[in-house]
Amino acid sequence: MSRVTLPMDSRVRERLRLLVHSGVTRCRDLRPHLQQFVETELFDGRPIPPRTDARFWPADVTIRNAVYHDVSSVKFVKLFIYDELNQNQN
Q: Which of the residues 37, 44, 49, 78 could staple to 53 if both were Cys, CB 3.0 to 4.6 A apart?
């Protein structure tokens, strides 16, 4: 049986991106940061969405895919900048 997952909330995705860019890349290290963000910053004083809501509580595979995408994009940008600097020096 396949299941349809909703995309991550844009605020959760952005927090994940910031954490990855600051060096946190392991799913088990990211999860507590995301939990604290959802509970204290997004829903402070309001009812917290159920853990089954994938927009705010993404699955491990979703987190790993996002980390892979972010790390890959950073490597690409660094490679592009390195190439640009080398071309300008020649």
A: 49
Find, among 31, 34, 23, the residue nearest to 74 by Cα. 23
pTM: 0.77
Flag whether 47 is in a domain: yes
- Which H or E run contains 5? none
Confirm whether 3 is domain-assigned: no
pLDDT per residue as tens, the chain (90 positions): 455 677 999 999 999 999 998 999 999 999 999 999 999 999 999 999 999 999 999 999 999 999 999 988 866 565 555 555 566 665
Does residue 32 fall inside a structural domain? yes
Identify the CA nearest to 73 among candidates 31, 35, 17: 17
Q: Give the domain extent around 44.
A: 10-89
